[in-house]
């Protein structure tokens, strides 16, 4: 399973970098949440599963000491190129899986970003192992920012892009309720394997690993899959919608209609 995910990202470096440029609200709301909850620079941050380095590079530009850790060597190489182009220096580039952070000592980081691992670890035991590792390498009071794909995201995507899939491949539709190979078919041997989580399960999962949950956000706000006109805005109009969507992002009644969820949590203080 891990090999399939690694291959998917090895073949998708530029697309992963561009994805957050296409989904501006997700990027803006996530950054606002990070800026509100991260300790001040030069705090040490582990961007675990950070892919092409979008968040790692942005934080490094603002004075954070960021180590980028990812499953895909191709994405790590791509991130080096992007960091150089942005005149940003990362503390390190490490290859591995989120279930094994043994190269890092206990209490090593002030914050950890989990912007991908928890929705690519299909086995619940692996998700638990990754969260235990995150808690181990975080300092007391350290911050975790963990991303999830919500339960209905796959089905909503199909409704928008390929509604006939429902009758063309009914045997696979059931998988989109929680776990599925996505997109439905590729010819290059790579698959997007993801766990789609019910929003009500996010907080219990994080708390089960000993974290104190501070917030759960739907990072598309009101704009999930209806953001074409929104993305064309600039200036005051764009900023006004970012502020409105940020306020809406905390409303649990909206979370099931969002594609991605973000959980902000902390380890217990010393």
Q: What keyword list fits this structure?
A:
21% strand; alpha/beta; 44% helix; Rossmann fold
The general outline is globular
Distance between the termini: 37 Å
Instruction: Determine and state the CATH class.
Output: Alpha Beta
| Structural class designation | alpha/beta
User: Major sheet: size, sense and barrel closure?
Assistant: 9 strands, mixed
CATH topology: Rossmann fold
CATH architectural type:
3-Layer(aba) Sandwich
* Fraction of residues in β-strands: 15-25%
Number of domains: 1
Low-pLDDT residue intervals, each spanning 5 or more residues: none
Q: Say how many strands there are.
A: 9
* Mean pLDDT rating: 92
- Helix share bin: 40-55%
Q: Give the C-alpha Rg.
A: 18 Å
Classified in CATH, the superfamily is Vaccinia Virus protein VP39
SSE order, as H and E? Answer: HHHEHEHEEHHEHHHEEHEHHHE
Number of helices: 14
Oligomer: single chain
Describe, in plain words, how this protein is organized in 3D.
The protein is 44% helix and 21% strand. The protein has 270 residues and is of the alpha/beta class. The chain has one domain: Vaccinia Virus protein VP39 (Rossmann fold), CATH 3.40.50.150. Strands 1, 2, 3, 4, 5, 6, 7, 8 and 9 form a 9-stranded mixed β-sheet that branches.
């Amino acid at each position: 399973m891990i090999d399939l995910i690694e291959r998917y990202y090895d073949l998708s470096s530029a697309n992963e970098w561009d994805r957050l440029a296409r989904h501006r609200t997700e990027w803006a709301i996530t950054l606002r949440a990070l800026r509100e909850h991260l300790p001040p620079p030069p705090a040490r941050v582990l961007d675990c599963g950070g892919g092409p380095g979008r968040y790692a590079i942005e934080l490094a530009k603002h004075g954070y000491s960021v180590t980028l850790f990812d499953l895909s060597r191709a994405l790590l190489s791509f991130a080096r190129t992007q960091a150089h182009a942005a005149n940003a220096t990362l503390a390190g580039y490490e290859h591995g899986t989120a279930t094994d952070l043994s190269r890092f000592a206990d209490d090593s980081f002030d914050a950890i970003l989990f912007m991908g691992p928890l929705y690519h670890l299909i086995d619940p035991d692996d998700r638990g192992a990754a969260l235990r590792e995150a808690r181990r390498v975080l300092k007391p009071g350290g911050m975790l920012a963990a991303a999830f794909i919500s339960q209905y995201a796959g089905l909503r995507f199909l409704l928008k892009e390929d509604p006939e899939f429902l009758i063309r491949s009914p045997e696979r539709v059931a998988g989109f309720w929680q776990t599925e190979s996505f997109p439905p078919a590729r010819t290059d041997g790579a698959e997007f394997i993801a766990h789609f989580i019910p929003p009500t399960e996010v907080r219990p999962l994080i708390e089960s690993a000993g974290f104190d949950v501070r917030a759960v956000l739907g990072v598309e706000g009101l704009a999930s899959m209806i953001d074409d006109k929104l993305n064309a805005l600039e200036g005051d109009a764009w900023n006004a919608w970012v502020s409105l969507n940020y306020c809406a992002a905390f409303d649990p009644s909206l979370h099931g209609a969002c594609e991605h969820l973000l959980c902000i949590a902390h380890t217990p203080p010393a």
